[in-house]
Write the structure tokens for this entry.
Amino acid sequence: MTLTREELRKLLLPGLAALALVAAGAGLVWGAQQSVRSALLRLAAAEADRRESTERLTRIAEEEREVKEKLDVYQQLKQLNILGEEHRLEWADAITRIRTQRELLDLRYRVDRQKLLISAPGKPANVDFYASTMKVELALLHEEDLLRFLADLRASGNAYYSVKQCLITRTGQAATGASIVPRLRADCEIDLITIIDRAAKR
């Protein structure tokens, strides 16, 4: 079918309008696609920010838990009086008190010079563990006297008492009706451990 020039002239305006509408529709589709792409990018960025914030909050909560645990340990050590310098006078007072309360017949001791056990790395400074070995000679009526002495010593605080060794021997003395005679003797080595936090001394 052949269109005349007059008919083509009449179709020109509707054709141009149709082309304009197609172009406008294409533009709207492209704009909608760009909006969707931009929204997806913003959503991905928001989700990444949320994940980062969640991870940061998790790290902060974990750090707070670790600090609380370390603070609890520090407070316990502080209550036991094992932080800082040695408490030799308190050690002597504790042994005198135990000897009196337990009515121990013969108790002798000597505390050696302090020595460094280990220096643990820390921030901002090292934590040093020191030990002074106490050698104890103790006359016993029975083995429980030694166990009570060690328990009283630990309960006195002022250091962490680590028993290295205890040797119990018989004295060979026979019991008499006139007086109480110790039949056992204990020779012990006990480490009195103290902790010095170098950061706290600054």
Notes: Helices lie at 5-79, 88-102, 143-155. The mean pLDDT is 83. Residues 5-79 form the longest helix (75 residues).
